[in-house]
Structures are given as structure tokens and as C-alpha cells.
Amino acid sequence: MKYSSLVSVFQSRLLRISAAAAIVCGSLFTANLIVHADAPKTAADYQADPASMIDAYRRVEAASVSDAMEQLLHQKRYMSHRMQSIFPTKFAGTALTVKLVKQENHDPDALSGMLKAIDSGGAGSVYVMQVEDGADIAGMGGLMGTAMFNRGFAGAVVDGGVRDLPQLKKIGFPVYSTGPVPSTSVSHYKFGGMNIPVDCDGVRVNPNDIIVADQDGVVVVPRDRAAEILVLAQKLDNSEHSMYPFIEKFHSIEEAVKQFGRI
């Protein structure tokens, strides 16, 4: 056989070997991707990694969290329409609770515990305040909000009023409250405790419960059931988000509900 023919045969075989190797490598690469793809986390995974759990709660919808708790706990754990945010927002974090007791006084230190509570919080904290009979009293304002913002708080939920909205909006610190009022709690309230159980718009909030808030409202997740509630909320979220394109394509919500079992 001529030398040129030998070279041609060799090159042909080399190309076939290279192609086969590429297929094998491609298969191995694909298999590797499948093996190392992020699998959905279980409740046990989240229980072992609280930071990851809080991060996941930041991405799930409050409505799905509320539905998950209704299915698992058979409880109402969401606040009413009375609690409104000062601007559209979405956040999640762990509750740092504070209670103000209505009591006329001239004590300059009557509210010092409230300030200490803020300085004890940090990244991911959610300031949850019960203001007794406080619809017309500002439980917090710009100074407190600025301190929370700079300490990394995720947001605040006040069963009472809020003031200094221009400052809070300027720094982008999210607050839910019963509405804006210009009044002060100074001389009218005393500090009643921090990191104690409080009732916020009729919902019991314990220290370190998880607060999930978005434009649909505020939901309180009991810490001891948070991992399993999150997993179910994620499933409900995924079902609902899959239904939107189905409805857009087939123009039928009845068929979507039959297909996905979610409404």
C-alpha cells in the first residue's frame, strides 16, 4: 500500500477514534452534570442549615407559605389587610420582638429598652413590635429605621403606626404597619420587654419565628416547623408558577387545575 494511502487510512481511523472519544466524554460530562445538579433540599437539609432556610424563604411567596401552614398546621398565621407596607417589598428574616405598654409617664428611660433591642439585632433580623392600642401612635420612625437599616435588619412589622416615611423610603427600609401617623410614643408608652411572645395584629409571634412578607402581606412561621413548611411552600409555588404558561397556552383555568391540582 502506498504511503499516502496509509496516511489516509490512519487519519480516517484517528478521526473515528476522536469522534468516539468525544461522544464518551460528552456522555460522561452530561452524566456528571446530572449527578451534580442541585437536587431539591429536604426538610432535614434546611433544619441542618438555618441560613440556607432563611435564604430560601426570601424566594418563596407569602401566599404559598400561608397555604402550606394551613395544610400542615390548620392555623391562620397571617396578618390582616390592616398591616400595610410603606412601599412594595419582599423580605424574610427572624423575629426580634418588642412590646410597648400604654402608660402615661415622665420617665426619660421609659423606652430605652426599645433602643437596646434594636442595637442587639443584626443581619436578617425582623423587628416585630406590639404597640398596645397603638393605631394612632407611631411605634417607630426614621431614626429607628435608619439604625435598623445600618445594622442589616431585613425589615420591620409594627402593630401600630409609623412616621418619618420620607426618610424610610429614602434609605429603602421596608416597614409594615397599620398606617402613617405623626404622633410619638414618648411619654405615652413604656418598654414592656424584648424577645418575648407578642401579639401582632392578632397573630402570636415568638422570638426567632420566621417572618415572610411581600405585597400579599405578612406571614409568621413557627420556628420549630419552619423547615417542613418551607418544603411544602416551595412545591405549591412551583405548581402555581407552572400553571401560568399552561393557562396562557390553552386558555383554560379548569384544565390547569385538573393538570396541576392547585388553585
Beta content comes to: 15-25%
Total number of β-strand segments?
Answer: 13
Tell me the Rg in angstroms: 27 Å
Unreliable stretches: 19-37
Oligomer: single chain
Structural class assignment: alpha/beta
Helical content band: 40-55%
What does the overall shape look like? elongated
Describe the model:
The relative contact order is 0.17. By secondary structure, the chain is of the alpha/beta class. The strands form three sheets. Strands 1, 2, 3, 5, 7, 9, 12 and 13 form an eight-stranded mixed β-sheet that branches. Strands 4-6-8 form a three-stranded parallel β-sheet. Strands 10-11 form a two-stranded antiparallel sheet. It contains nine helices and 13 strands. The protein has helices spanning 3-36, 43-48, 50-57, 62-73, 112-120, 142-150, 165-171, 226-250, 253-260; strands at 84-85, 91-102, 125-131, 138-140, 155-159, 161-162, 175-177, 179-180, 189-194, 198-200, 203-205, 210-214, 217-221.
Q: Helix and strand layout, with pairings?
A:
Layout: H1 3-36, H2 43-48, H3 50-57, H4 62-73, E1 84-85, E2 91-102, H5 112-120, E3 125-131, E4 138-140, H6 142-150, E5 155-159, E6 161-162, H7 165-171, E7 175-177, E8 179-180, E9 189-194, E10 198-200, E11 203-205, E12 210-214, E13 217-221, H8 226-250, H9 253-260
Parallel strand pairs: 2-3, 3-5, 4-6, 5-7, 6-8
Antiparallel strand pairs: 1-7, 2-9, 2-12, 10-11, 12-13
Helix pairs in contact: 4-8, 6-7, 8-9
